[in-house]
Amino acid sequence: MNTHTETQFTAIDPELYAKAFQLLDPAPEPVAPAAPSAPSPVSLILAAGPMHRAGPVEKTLTDALAFLDTHGWAKGRLIHPEGARCSIGALRAAAGARNSAYRDAGKLLLDEARHQHGTHWKAIPAWNDAHTGPQVRSVWEAAIQRAHHANI
């Protein structure tokens, strides 16, 4: 295979070449250093790891505590005339029915009540009526944490 390559180039004026190059690609204006950008939402999500999805028991307990926070907590009756409820009333409102999440949430709440206030409590209403609001709330919060950690 014979390939002929032309090796004779036309001479150019180096200054003219430099000027033409500068016109085609001028030096950029000095730019101040950019401030670090905020992390994108995607990078925050990926850095946070997998998102927790509450199980039915955790959701029932969380919704019931939110109900108590919104409507009030009551002693001595399931539903107060002004809308406040006792712990069982809040569980029923959150669950919507006496389903397995309702029963399991109630069992976990009673178990935590026994853990914090003694094993002699036979039912949530008796325990609810014998304690103060902060004591009851402490049991609710601990039960929610247990459900969260057990992923139920």
What can you see in these coordinates?
The protein has 152 residues and is mainly α. It is 57% helix and 0% strand. It is built from seven helices and no strands. The chain has helices spanning 14-24, 41-48, 56-71, 87-95, 100-117, 124-129, 133-150. The N and C termini lie far apart (78 Å). The model has no long low-confidence stretch (mean pLDDT 83).
Notable features of this structure?
rod-shaped, mainly alpha, 57% helix, 152 residues, single chain
Give the overall silhouette: rod-shaped
Gyration radius, to the nearest Å? 35 Å
Task: Give the uncertain stretches in residue-range form.
Answer: none
Number of strands: 0
Order of helices and strands: HHHHHHH
Secondary-structure map:
Layout: H1 14-24, H2 41-48, H3 56-71, H4 87-95, H5 100-117, H6 124-129, H7 133-150
Helix pairs in contact: 3-4, 3-5, 3-7, 4-5, 5-7
Brief summary of the model shown:
The chain is an all-alpha fold.
